[in-house]
């Protein structure tokens, strides 16, 4: 990887094939990707994930027919610079901190039918049971396994743009297990366990018990796909001379399948998946639906895609809604870059960075363009005209200045490439639908634009 720096703005170009990047770019036709709203959006999640979700239900088809009767409203040519919402002051600081600095996958979500905030505890139980049932299909399972599944619904009070916006809520899915040896013994006694039990120990890693380390490295104790213990009820048969005779997998008699859990110091267990639903300044969607629907068009997930698909399926079956990966294109990224650069920061925690993709064969090239955040802010201030607002003209001019500066130093036309990622001290976003929010002060402002994109995709 080669780095090149310029005099005006600290910039860098990263080449996966450094000898070809400049020549390839100069031969490409110009296609102004960041200034074209009609540029083809890139799906924000794996196409496999979409296959898990259910198609439009009768109620959703009726809802769509209602929307078709409403006038089409294109994206606004001007937007307000993100500001700190007074309502955000009511949000639990610990929950806000939990949402920051995590990579979230974005989805749009049609309104939830007959959803009630008073039934969150019941939803937790129903979703837990659903997850257990889905994960145990066709399998004999460990006794008491269902008690290790835990789903928690909780509201995010204050996470809204106006009082009219529905309350955001958080869903967490994980496993819990007894903590101390006494708790484990008490837990097992509930299932009439009579055999001798030993203290819980580590079976993998540097802290693994010496016995398990020895059994796993014995010639007849090695696993098929590596020596690590990956499942509960892995068994070793040892003869009278103390030699390992055979290693039995969890699916061999008795047929029991359950993912192993490393001992946790936290009795609440490990959170495996988190998702949250919100609506920030969602008036355009709220006005089109009846009171039977709860509008939370923006859904953010962190965790395995299989869990996202599983939980999404339950929501679709229960509330007659539909999830879709939220498309973010280069045009959206240019707006994000301008709005986030315009935000006043007490201190900067990251450089302002852009990533352009060069469409070439057989392997694409990436150009990384890093700028000191204060220089980026100075450039924005020089093109910004209307206080408190960002216009399309200003966004175009801001991006044009960046591209012109880059061309002046490196003779590469960035307009012939495609913008795929923007990173600032406020947040970072990628065309694959991944986002990471870094600044709590502008959390509501970032979510407001994402809500707008989600509503636009739904309509």
TrEMBL record:
Location in the cell: Chromosome, Centromere; Nucleus
Record flagged with keyword DNA-binding: no
InterPro entries in UniProt: CENP-L, Glutathione_peroxidase, Thioredoxin-like_sf
Keywords of this entry: Centromere, Chromosome, Nucleus, Oxidoreductase, Peroxidase
Entry-linked Pfam families: CENP-L, GSHPx
A single Gene Ontology CC term: nucleus
Gene Ontology MF terms in the entry: peroxidase activity
A single GO BP: response to oxidative stress
Region spans: Disordered: 1-20
Family to which this protein belongs: Belongs to the CENP-L/IML3 family. Belongs to the glutathione peroxidase family.
Name recorded for this polypeptide: Centromere protein L
